[in-house]
Amino acid sequence: MRWLHHDRIFYVSCFHEIMAVVALRNVVKTYGDVTALHGLDFETKEGEFFVLLGPSGAGKTTTLKVIAGLEDIDSGEVVFDGKVVNTVPTNLRPVGMAFESYALYPHFTVFENIANPLRAPGKTYTETEIKDRVQKMAKMLKIEHLLTRHPGELSGGQKQRVSLGRTMVREPSVYLLDEPLTHVDAKIRFDLRIQFHRLEELQQSTTVYVTHDYVEALSLGDRIGIIDQGRIVQIGEPKQIYYHPRNIFVAHLVGQPSINLMNAQLDADDHNAHLHVPQGGFSIPLSPERFHALKQVNAPRDLIVGIRPRDLMTFTTTPETATAQVKSDVFEPFGSFGLLSILARDIYLKLLTDPEQEVEPDIPLGLNFREDRLIFFDPTTENNLLWSEN
Ligand SMILES: Nc1ncnc2c1ncn2[C@@H]1O[C@H](COP(=O)(O)OP(=O)(O)OP(=O)(O)O)[C@@H](O)[C@H]1O
Q1: 299 to 157, 264, 266, 303: CA distances (angstroms)
Q2: Whose Cα sits closest to atom 5 in ligand 1?
């Protein structure tokens, strides 16, 4: 890659040749009275698929617009490969964007919409190359049969895929994808997620992918950045985010059905440590290692304990030998899993079961916990007491 000082030459010369590293440093962005980004900080790795996951209004789209140069920022830095690009206009940044609202040219066919970026001034693709690239995109996105139609003749999910094709056909250094699959039906979305893993273009570029769907985030992300109220809350690989959430917000955001949370008290005598859950009328034995770890971080006696529905186990025979004696409530079969609500004295818990083993209400059950999967939160800060960066 040639490193020339003039912004324009630098970006033109690096186009196609590198997978850029994108960084936002302490970026503040306001819209009038609304602060959309509150000092946002993160850095992608070269060639990584980085997913920004957060609830509605968290600042995800604003972040992409800032990277693309579609929005000016109040303060902070937007950096491509170590070079601050705050003043570099959009058309000179090596990014390809697909936003949820698909601005397609209504008078062009699908083929021409996808081919359009390849015909931009300065591009030297032959007609054969254009045809090959468009066909390849259309095949990947399962829209080959739509190439001669116009946008007005397409469904929302089809338009979204055409828009994605138009973004990807250019092979930019950085892809910015904003909820590109929201209007695509579940089966095609599943197939496209698999394609995204395989697609050479995405493997050879850096991608920042915005979603509020945790399944998409866990499935696609090399790393996930959790964003809330214009700030990054946690960055980690999918497993870290799922098993070691930084706080209750992250624990809730990732996982469906959502994590079970209970108020608990940490108790220990000379020999044993346990968590007493007064509302549930039971105590969970703790291993010496877990107890020691909690002591090391000066965990308060009163805390909140979380456990995911998949880490609870029930059984009907000899329930008196279990950690907790509970009763079944509602059973819902969801195809690949069953969701059972149970009542432990005053609290309801949810757990995953075999979808084919329907459980009637009011059946006495024994309940056991996977102790190694318990997550301990400070009740005041709601932070994971045993969380660490690694
Ligand atoms: N043009 C604008 N003018 C005023 N406020 C805006 C504008 N664009 C975004 N905002 C506000 O900035 C905040 C972040 O918005 P943003 O669209 O980035 O969130 P998001 O995480 O992408 O949400 P969603 O998932 O609903 O698309 C919100 O409070 C939003 O109302």
Answers
A1: 49, 12, 9, 8
A2: 31
Q: What's the ipTM?
A: 0.97
| Domain 7-247, CATH number (from 3.40.50.2000, 3.65.10.10, 3.10.290.10, 3.40.50.300) | 3.40.50.300
- pLDDT per position as a tens digit, 7-56: 333 333 333 445 689 999 999 999 999 999 999 999 999 889 999 999 99
* Å from CA of 359 to ligand 1 middle: 44
Task: Compute the distance from residue 95 Cα to the ligand 1 centre, in Å.
Answer: 21
pLDDT digits (tens, 9 = 90+) for 94-144: 888 876 566 789 999 999 999 998 988 777 899 999 999 999 989 988 899
Our CA dihedral for 110, 167, 238, 298, rounded to 10 degrees, sits at: -130
Please state the domain extents for the chain.
7-247, 260-377
Nearest CA to ligand 1 atom 11: 36
Please identify which residue in the block is written with the tokens 């066909």: 135
The CB of 58 under 6 Å from ligand 1? The reply is yes
Class of CATH domain 260-377: mainly beta
Cα 59 to averaged position of ligand 1 atoms, centre (Å): 6
